[in-house]
Design brief:
heterodimer, A: 270 residues, alpha/beta, Rossmann fold, 2 domains, B: 653 residues, five-stranded mixed sheet, 28 strands
C-alpha cells in the first residue's frame, strides 16, 4: 500500500505524496513523545492517525503544522525539505488546522471567527483597512464571499451572527472547521474533530469531512480517538502507541493487526 | 364542466406569467437569501429561467400529461419548476420533503411520476433508494450540486445544466404550443393530503380551481403587486401553493424564500412581508419568546411594557378596526406605538404586515388578541386542500378569536342534520386521483363537499364556528351535544396545561385527564419555592392541583355561556402522572390525541373518574426513546370541580 498512487474502493484516485515524515523523533526534556516515526500523506486522501491516550498523536500533528520542531528527522512538503518555520508561514503554504479543545474567539460572531481564517490572504495594510477604500474594501468583499460559501457549505447560516461562546459544543467544532476551510487549505489537519460529540453530531461531522475531501479535493489528516468513525471515513491509518508507530495501512489491515489489537485492548505484561 | 369566469388569456399559469412579464417586467418576482445576501429575480428573469427549464424538460423527453414530482424546501428554483412543468404540458406534484422513503414511494408510485425535480443529494438518495419500485420514473433533476459529482449522470441531471440544454434545444415552438393548449379545465397541480387515516389521497386541482380562488381571495384582502410574502411553509401544502403561486401570479407580488429553515425568523424580519401566514403554534411560540425575554428586562422596561400592553389590550383592537376611540387613548396609543408596539413589531418581523392569517387549529384568544392589540391585522381562515384552501375567512373589522369567519367569496355553506359542515365553491377539487370511490364519498353530484368538521353558523353575524371533528362529536347520556375538542382547546389555552383529554360520550357527566406543561409549571414552581424531584411528583403536588382546578373552573364558566355545549362542563378531573407521548402510541406523530387508545390504556383511571373515588393507584407501561419498556407506579388524586348549574341560570333569568 505504501509508496504508490492508488485508487480508493469508492473510486477516488489518490495522487502523489504531499507530505512525508522521515524518522521523526521529538523529545520534551527527558520524555520522548515521538520515536522514529515515518509515514506519508498523499494528495487527496483522508489519512488518520490513531492511538490510545498519550500515544503522541497531537504532538505529531504539531510537528506537521510546524508548531513543534523535531530533534531528529525530516519533514518533506511538496518535494522539498522543510526547515524550521513559524506556524503562520506554514499556514501560507496551504496547511490549516483545527484544535482538540476548540480555539475560537468566543466573544466574536461565527462570521467574524471564520473571517479570521482569511487573514493570510489579506494584503492591504492596517491604514488602508482603516480608511476602507479601494483595495481594502475589494479584498473584504472577496474574502466575505469565500466565507459565505463556507457558511453555506457547513449549513451554519442560522448562527452567522451568533457569538460562538453561546453555541453548543458540536456547532463550535463546525465553526472551527469553517475557519480552517476559509483558508482554502491544500492540507487540512483535524485534531480530534469528533471528541465529545454525540452520535448525530459525529455523523454530521463525518459527512462534512467526506464532503470537503470530495468537493474541494482537500487532503485531510485527522487524529481521532473514536475507532469506529476513523475506520469508516479514512483511506489509510497510522497507529501510534507510546510514541512509536505500530501499524500503517488501510482500515482493514489495521483492524486485523495484532499489535494494534494489543495496544487498544491491552495485553498482560508478564 | 367548470363554469369559469376567467378571461381566456389568464386561465393558466404560463399565461399569467406572460401577463406579469408584460405588466411588471422589471419588478422583483422572487427573492432568496443566499450567501448572506438577498438575491432577486424580476418577472422577466424568472420567466427566462422557467422557459429554459421547460425547454430542458421537453428535450429530456417530458410528455404532455406526465406527472412530475417536486421535492424540496422553498426555493425560487423549485417554484419555477412548477410553472415550467405546466408550460411543458405536464402536471407538478409537490411532495413533503420530510416524508420518509416509504411514504414517498407510495406517492411517486401512485401518480406514476416520470420525472422528479429535487433539491439536493439527500432527496436524490431517497428517490434512488426506492427506484426499483418505480418503473415509470425516468429522470431525476437536482438543484444543489453539492456531493453529486460521483453520481451516474445518465438519469440524474443538474438543474442549471438542464436549463442550458433547454436554451440550445430549439424546442421553443413545441413548448409554446403545449402552453397554449392549457385551458381552465386542465389540471394545475396535484397535492397529496397528509392523510391522518389511511393512505394519502391525490387531490386534483384544475387551473380554474386555483386561479378563481386566488382571484377571489386576492380581491377579498385587496392584495396587489406591491405586496410581499415569505414562503416558508411546505411546498406540498395547498396553502403555500395558493399564496406563493396562485395569488403571487394573479397579483404579481414578490415571493421571498428564507435562507434555511432555521433562519426563517431572522429572514422574516429582514423582508418584513406585508402578507403573512402562520399556524397558531408559530404565534404561540413567538409570544412565549417575547414574554420570557421581557421577564429578563429591567424593572423600568417591564413597567413600560406592561403599562402599554394593558392600554393596547383595551384600545388596540378598536384602533385596528377603525372604531371610535377617545382622543386621549388615541394619543396614548400613538405614544405606545413609538415606544413599544413599533419596535416590538419590528423585532417580530411584522412591521409591515397588512394582512396576516392563521389557520389549521384553534388559536388561543389571549394569543390572538396580543397580536391584534399591537396593530397586526391577524385574522383566521378555515380551509381544506379539497377547497383550494378557502372556505371561510374573516373580513377586516369582523375579526374574533372564536369564529373562522364568513364564507369566502363564491363559497356556499350548508350545515347538515348531523351538524357537519358542507361547502360548494369554484375552488372545489376535480377528483381524488385514481380513487373514484373516495371522490364519490366526499363530493356529491351537486358539488357539495363534506368537511368532516362539525360546526354551526351564528345567526346574528353569519360567522361559522367550528366545534370539533364530526366523528368525535357525540351525545351525552341526556342527549346533550358532546364536543371534546372544544373543551380541550379551551383548557390547552392555559400555558400550564399541555394536553387535555375530555371524556363524556354516552355518560352523565364530563371528566378530564390533564397533562401539565413541565416548562411552564416548573417555572412557576421555581418562583414559588416549590421543590420537586420528578415530573410525577410535580404533577401530583397539591398546589399544582389547586392551580389546575382554578383553570378548569374558569373553563367551565366559559363553556356554560354556550347554550349548545353547556353540558360539556367538567365535573371531575385528574392530572396524569406521565406526559402523553407519541412513542407510547398516545399521540399521533403530529401530536394529536388518540382518544381510543388513551381510553383503553388508562381504563382504570377512567373508571375511577366515574365511580366517585378520591384517589386511584395505577401502574403504566412506558416506552423509552431507545425502545426499552418500563413501568411507572403512581397514586393519583381525583378532584371534583365546581360547575355552573344551568337550571339555576334559567331560574335566575
Amino acid at each position: 500500500m505504501d509508496g504508490a498512487a492508488y485508487v480508493t474502493p469508492d473510486g477516488r484516485s489518490i495522487g502523489d505524496v504531499v507530505m512525508e515524515m522521515r524518522n521523526i523523533t521529538l523529545r520534551f526534556g527527558g520524555v520522548t513523545a515521538i520515536r522514529d516515526i515515518s509515514f506519508d500523506i498523499r494528495e487527496g486522501e483522508i489519512r488518520a492517525i490513531i492511538g490510545p491516550n498519550g500515544a503522541g498523536k497531537s504532538s505529531m500533528l504539531n510537528v506537521i503544522n510546524g508548531f513543534y520542531h523535531p530533534q531528529e528527522g525530516e519533514v518533506w512538503f511538496r518535494g522539498a525539505k522543510r526547515g524550521p518555520m513559524k506556524p503562520h508561514a506554514i499556514a501560507r503554504q496551504g496547511i490549516a488546522r483545527t484544535f482538540q479543545n476548540i480555539a475560537l474567539f468566543s466573544g466574536m460572531s461565527t462570521l467574524d471567527n471564520i473571517m479570521t481564517g482569511r487573514f493570510t490572504k489579506m494584503k492591504s495594510g492596517l491604514l488602508a483597512q482603516a480608511i476602507w477604500k479601494g483595495r481594502a474594501e475589494r479584498e473584504e468583499v472577496e474574502n466575505r464571499e469565500i466565507v459565505e460559501k463556507v457558511i453555506d457549505f457547513l449549513e451554519i447560516q442560522a448562527i452567522r451572527k451568533t457569538p460562538v461562546g453561546r453555541l453548543p459544543y458540536g456547532l463550535q467544532k463546525r465553526v472551527e472547521l469553517g475557519r480552517a476551510l476559509a483558508a482554502e487549505p491544500k492540507l487540512l489537519l483535524l485534531d480530534e474533530p469528533m471528541a465529545g460529540m454525540n452520535v448525530e453530531e459525529k455523523e454530521d461531522m463525518s459527512r462534512f469531512i467526506l464532503d470537503v475531501n470530495d468537493e474541494f479535493g482537500t487532503t485531510i489528516a485527522l487524529i481521532e480517538h473514536d475507532m469506529g468513525v476513523v475506520m469508516d471515513i479514512s483511506d489509510r491509518v497510522v497507529v501510534m502507541d507510546y510514541g512509536a508507530k505500530i501499524g500503517d495501512g488501510t482500515p482493514d489491515e489495521v483492524r486485523n493487526s495484532q499489535a494494534v489489537i494489543d495496544a487498544y485492548l491491552g495485553v498482560a505484561h508478564d | 364542466m367548470a363554469i369559469t369566469g376567467l378571461p381566456e388569456n389568464l386561465c393558466s399559469f404560463p399565461k399569467l406569467l406572460a401577463r406579469n412579464v408584460a405588466d411588471h417586467s422589471g419588478k422583483p418576482a422572487y427573492r432568496e437569501k443566499e450567501f448572506g445576501i438577498w438575491q432577486s429575480w424580476t418577472w422577466q428573469q424568472a420567466s427566462d429561467e422557467i422557459n429554459a427549464l421547460a425547454d430542458g424538460l421537453i428535450s429530456l423527453g417530458l410528455n404532455v400529461g406526465d406527472y412530475v414530482a417536486i421535492i424540496g424546501s422553498n426555493r425560487p428554483h423549485l417554484y419555477w419548476a412548477m410553472v415550467a412543468i405546466q408550460s411543458a404540458g405536464a402536471v407538478p406534484v409537490p411532495i413533503y420533503q420530510d416524508s420518509v422513503a416509504e411514504e414517498m414511494a407510495y406517492v411517486l408510485e401512485h401518480c406514476g411520476a416520470r420525472f422528479a425535480v429535487v433539491e439536493d443529494q439527500e432527496q436524490v438518495d431517497k428517490v434512488l433508494d426506492i427506484h426499483d419500485r418505480l418503473p415509470d420514473l425516468a429522470e431525476i433533476i437536482y438543484l444543489d450540486p453539492r456531493g453529486m459529482r460521483k453520481y451516474d449522470h445518465e438519469r440524474v441531471h443538474n438543474y442549471a445544466a438542464l436549463q442550458e440544454r433547454g436554451r440550445n434545444a430549439g424546442v421553443e415552438a413545441d413548448r409554446k404550443a403545449r402552453s397554449e393548449a392549457l385551458s381552465a379545465d386542465s389540471t394545475c397541480v396535484m397535492l397529496y393530503t397528509s392523510g391522518t387515516t389511511g393512505r394519502p389521497k391525490g387531490v386534483v386541482l384544475s387551473n380554474a380551481n386555483i386561479i378563481e380562488t386566488a382571484r377571489a381571495s386576492s380581491e377579498f384582502d385587496s392584495l396587489h403587486a406591491g405586496d410581499s410574502v415569505l414562503a416558508y411553509l411546505p411546498m406540498a401544502w395547498v396553502g403555500d401553493f395558493i399564496f406563493s403561486i396562485g395569488q403571487a401570479y394573479w397579483t404579481g407580488f414578490c415571493v421571498a424564500c428564507p435562507e434555511s429553515a432555521e433562519t426563517m425568523q431572522h429572514d422574516l424580519r429582514e423582508i418584513g412581508p406585508t402578507y403573512f401566514f402562520a399556524p397558531p403554534r408559530f404565534f404561540e411560540g413567538l409570544l412565549t419568546n417575547v414574554m420570557i425575554r421581557m421577564e429578563d428586562g429591567g424593572a423600568f422596561k417591564r413597567w413600560l411594557f406592561e403599562t402599554f400592553m394593558k392600554l393596547a389590550k383595551r384600545v388596540g383592537p378598536a384602533v385596528l378596526d377603525g372604531l371610535p376611540v377617545s382622543t386621549m387613548d388615541r394619543m396614548k396609543y400613538a405614544l405606545g406605538n413609538l415606544l413599544i408596539y413599533g419596535p416590538l413589531k419590528n423585532t417580530l418581523g411584522m412591521s409591515r404586515v397588512r394582512v396576516g392569517y392563521t389557520a389549521g387549529e384553534a388559536i388561543g384568544p389571549e394569543i390572538f388578541d396580543f397580536y391584534r392589540s399591537l396593530g397586526i391585522n391577524l385574522k383566521q381562515l378555515y380551509g381544506q386542500t379539497e377547497a383550494s384552501v378557502f372556505i371561510t375567512q374573516q373580513p377586516d373589522g369582523q375579526v374574533r378569536a372564536d369564529t373562522v369567519g364568513v364564507p369566502s367569496p363564491g363559497v356556499e355553506l350548508r350545515i347538515s342534520e348531523s351538524g357537519e359542515v358542507f361547502y360548494r365553491s369554484p375552488g372545489v377539487f376535480v377528483e381524488y386521483f385514481k380513487n373514484a370511490e373516495s371522490t364519490a364519498d366526499t363530493k356529491d353530484g351537486e358539488g357539495w363537499v363534506a368537511t368532516g368538521d362539525a360546526g354551526f353558523i351564528e345567526e346574528d353575524t353569519g360567522h361559522l364556528r367550528i366545534i370539533d371533528r364530526a366523528k368525535d362529536v357525540g351525545k351525552m347520556a341526556d342527549g346533550a351535544m358532546f364536543a371534546p375538542k372544544y373543551v380541550e382547546n379551551k383548557l390547552k389555552f392555559y400555558p400550564n396545561i399541555l394536553e387535555a383529554v375530555v371524556f363524556g360520550a354516552g355518560r352523565e357527566i364530563c371528566t378530564a385527564f390533564i397533562n401539565i406543561d413541565l416548562m411552564a409549571v416548573g417555572n412557576w414552581a421555581e418562583r414559588n419555592n416549590i421543590a420537586y424531584a420528578s415530573y410525577q411528583e410535580l404533577s401530583q403536588h397539591p398546589q399544582v392541583y389547586e392551580m389546575i382546578q382554578s383553570h378548569v373552573e374558569e373553563v367551565n364558566e366559559s363553556v356554560a355561556q354556550d347554550d349548545m355545549l353547556s353540558g360539556c362542563q367538567i365535573h371531575r378531573f385528574l392530572i396524569l402522572h406521565k406526559q402523553l407521548d407519541g412513542d407510547d402510541g398516545e399521540l399521533t406523530r403530529t401530536q394529536k390525541v388518540r382518544r381510543r387508545i388513551i381510553e383503553e390504556k388508562y381504563s382504570d383511571l377512567l373508571t375511577a373518574l366515574y365511580d366517585g373515588s378520591n384517589t386511584i393507584s395505577t401502574e403504566t407501561e412506558v416506552t423509552y426513546e431507545d425502545g426499552r419498556k418500563g413501568a411507572i407506579r403512581a397514586t393519583l388524586e381525583i378532584r371534583d370541580v365546581k360547575t355552573i348549574d344551568l337550571s339555576h341560570k334559567v331560574a335566575a333569568e
